[in-house]
Known about the structure:
Layout: E1 2-4, E2 10-16, E3 19-25, H1 35-50, E4 56-61, H2 72-75, E5 103-107, H3 114-120, E6 124-128, H4 130-138, E7 151-155
Parallel strand pairs: 3-4, 4-5, 5-6, 6-7
Antiparallel strand pairs: 1-2, 2-3
Amino acid sequence: MSEQKGPVGQIRTETHGRIFKIIIDNASKKNSFSPLMMAQMSDALTVLHNNDALWVGVVCAEGSDFTAGLDMPKFFGPKAEKWDLKEGNIDVFGLANRCRKPIVTAVQGVVFTIGIEMMLLTNDMDAFRFEQFQHAVQTYLWALPAMSSEMCHFLPSADAERAHT
């Protein structure tokens, strides 16, 4: 197993054999995304996409919440931080391109905006604490038909610990 660790407010990755684990690590802010984290997520998806030794990705998060979405002041307004997709990188939103490898998304707790959009691009989704997840999905019902070939498993009896195993 290899492991990359960074400070809070980062996207971390771990390799477990042929599995590439991508970890959202900003638990003190409900795993909200900064522009730096968007760039790091794109980098991680690009590593998964380009590395033939890796067969599948797993996206999960530290703490009790998957993500509260974008840290809005860091993206919009007078103090916004600039972020551009690197040429050749995988687009986190799947608009420019998508990762060719299967990705499983394990969510728990709060799941808003970018979290739902990332889940809709993945191949398998485990939703822990279904009631909270259901509320978030109701705001994105227009996007659900995009999941046509995707698999979605709702496991209300599971807990956040299962996302890391």
